[in-house]
């Protein structure tokens, strides 16, 4: 490997979770075999810095860990169940990993080895294609933050914000603040939290003819409009200063423009400029440039409340949130006063029923609201929807926040907060929930969805469900030895390790819950790997996968799923 690497002489070595696994594993194997892993241009070996995940550095060669960058720059936009190479590749490249039965590794034939080589080579091809896909973003991050590729591929968004500040201070005639030391960080961490954003709790139900309004860049627009930052924060009230009431405590800010809000304003203007350029003449680098400034703007609010920030200002963060609550409430009251019906409001979004109003009238309402908003604050139309389902929290009748499903006039669905995007649910539960939502939103009633639920439960009880559909997949978030609680996926990982196969942080563990002779045994005692013999546990899959996935949807239609659980007659669902 070293000989080939030297012959190729790459500028960049890339991997997927190569900081956490590939590079340290290669280094360990080399040491075990008394070989020097001399990858550096000066023949030095990779060095590793400490952190949540170690960072592997090679002298003279840029080592990029794509997993780290995708986690920072892409994860909030991805629908993937996990950030595994398989899931991310499926979403970004349209192709996943090859299948390989790792149970065969106990006794490999010549053909098995060939399949194993193909499996690994394909992983490398996917990683290379992901690197090509991410290259515009990596390059634009490096240019905009003015930091090396090695660093921008690993830095979190707060660090990116700070680097952007430090490299642009000269324009604002500012001197860099010192980095907080350990004692100061500890003090900051001990401070109490301030009140969060205003939430207008939804009343669970199926609603017709609605739309969503969104505040554009809500948090940064408030920071800019009201000049909220460390440099503008005042210890006491001054003439013409801004007063913000935060949970009964008064905070004061100068109206003289501070460099942080001014810099942030510049970031948003650049975001708009590059977005416009991309729309007029699309190419991956314009899109990446626009996205980098969007992420910078969105991270600015969190940065001011981040305990490790040089420009830490919890008063500015608290004031930003207080002002957001005020404007969200005012906007909701105004919408309701115009004979619309607000269904839900959270952070920067407002959902409303049009009632008897037309789309044209609704757009005119939006225009009038924006006339009265100060500074650069702006409310935008997300979209119109023909139907929307809002549900309650589990075990309560209270509306759940950030949990709803919508369908537009082209029957395109938007789902937020449901288990369809959770990582620890089997395919059967996720597919059932998805179909129940789809049928309910398309039909405007629960009839077809209930028939599907009846059929699914019947098939589950009669063991007609394919095993692959009841497999649960959970990602190991830390080394196996660091887990104090022995949960089902930890048990599965321990079984894999006991079989002689490697278990690493970040890997996806697959298992199912089986029937056991002991009726009162714990769930973790029923864990089996996909290739182990055993029947799936009907009771577990009904009570812990199927019912939780659909019960709050059925609650909207007054269908009590617990009556099915207890084996009682349920008029809406009938007998099974």
Give an overview of the whole structure:
44% of the residues lie in helices and 15% in strands. By secondary structure, the chain is of the alpha+beta class. A hairpin with a 5-residue loop joins strand 13 and strand 14 (413-416). Helix 7 (157-168) packs across helix 11 (284-304), helix 9 crosses helix 10 and helix 14 (427-443) packs antiparallel against helix 15 (447-461).
List the uncertain runs: 569-576
Number of strands: 17
- Going across the biggest sheet, name each strand in turn: 5-10-11-6-12-13-14
Q: Helix tally?
A: 18
Q: Helicity level, as a percent range?
A: 40-55%
Shape, principal axes of CA atoms: globular
- Average of per-residue pLDDT values: 89
Using only C-alpha atoms, the radius of gyration works out to: 27 Å
Percent of residues in beta strands: 15-25%
Give the CA-CA distance, first to last residue: 61 Å
Main β-sheet: number of strands, strand sense, barrel status? Answer: 7 strands, antiparallel
| Structural class determined from secondary elements | alpha+beta
Concise account of the structure shown:
This protein has 576 residues and is an alpha+beta fold. The chain has 18 helices and 17 strands. The chain is globular, with a radius of gyration of 27 Å.
SSE topology:
Elements lengths: L1 H7 L3 E4 L2 H15 L14 E3 L5 E3 L4 E4 H8 L11 H9 L16 H36 L3 H4 L4 H12 L13 H9 L8 E2 L4 E11 L2 H9 L6 E2 L7 E5 L2 E5 L5 H22 L3 H21 L9 H24 L3 E6 L2 E5 L5 H14 L6 E14 L6 E9 L5 E4 L10 H17 L3 H15 L10 E4 L12 H11 L9 E6 L13 E2 L9 H18 L5 H5 L11
Helix pairs in contact: 3-5, 4-5, 5-11, 7-11, 9-10, 9-12, 10-11, 14-15, 14-17
